[in-house]
Amino acid sequence: AVIFYLFPFPSFKYQITDKIYDILLRFDRYQKESECIRMDMEYLVINHGSLRYISVGVWRMRIVVIGLCIIALVVFVLHLLQYLKIRKLCLYNKEELENPKHRRIFEELEKELNIRTKVRVIYSKYCNTPMTTGMISSVIILPIWIKNVPEHIYHDIVMHELIHIKHRDVLVKFSGILVIALHWFNPFSYILYYEISNISEMYCDSVVLKNRGREDRRAYSELLLKLITECEPDNRRFAAGILGNGRVKRRIIEMKTARKNRMLVSIVSM
Predict the structure, then answer these.
(1) What is the 3-state secondary structure (H, E, C) of 121-133?
(2) Which residues make Cβ contacts (< 8 Å) with residue 270, sequence separation at least 6?
(3) What pLDDT, on the 0 to 100 scale, is given for residue 191?
């Protein structure tokens, strides 16, 4: 869906209709001896020596396009500035990962998930919920209170964030912001971004809970509920976190049962 929003596929329909029209003309015996010139007089630009004529329709189109580009740029810059402000705040007065047990868990998860990019784990008192940021160099930012959680809780939280990194979810959310910037007038672009956030969180949940039993799923659900009651939801742009956009109910319902990956259904749906 993001690709269809960002790439102008509809513009090719004009080229396709022109090709079809040319092919039909070849089989039309009445048009073989004469050329057919089709011209849109509303959108017309004429350059002939010192003479230059631009129709009102072209001028109107230019003004609209420039206005849309300015609005898109403003929307994107506002989101980017918000991201840079929050990232700078979270990285200020940071603490590196020092707990040897937590370091061991992190390294084992990196190896298990085959994470090839360099990932930093830091703690910040300005971060109230676990989150992942950075499209080139990934950083997992954890609240200070994570230092004192049991090892199994730390394992699930860090694994969730590493899955975000493995599947480039921050880059996908960045693409969603581009869609909003270009299609700010279209309410479906906001719905798309909302669904991107939801689906990425549910996918991470499914990987964390893969091959786990009912008790583990209940414990993970209780962890999400505890986070949502003690922390603020993560609505930040260009970042992915275990709380996502705060819509935990849908995720808990989804993780109650393990689902099988049905490749045929996916292909037919595509």
Answers:
(1) EEECCCCCCCEEE
(2) none
(3) 92
Nearest to 155 by CA among 231, 91, 104, 118: 104
| Residue 29: pLDDT over 70 | no
The per-residue pLDDT for 34 is: 53
Please state the separation of Cα 42 from the chain's center in Å: 39
What is the mean pLDDT of the segment spanning 252-267? 74
Q: Which residue is it, tokens 């690709």?
A: 3
Q: How many CB atoms lie within 10 A of CB 224?
A: 21
CA 86/CA 88 separation, integer angstroms:
5
Which of 155, 157, 156, 161 is CA-nearest to residue 101? 155
How many Cβ atoms sit within 10 Å of the Cβ of residue 8? 8
pLDDT at 172 over 60: yes
Report the amino acid identity of residue 146. Answer: I
Q: Which helix (H) or strand (E) holds 240?
A: strand 239-241
pLDDT band at residue 36 using 50, 70 and 90 as cut-offs: low
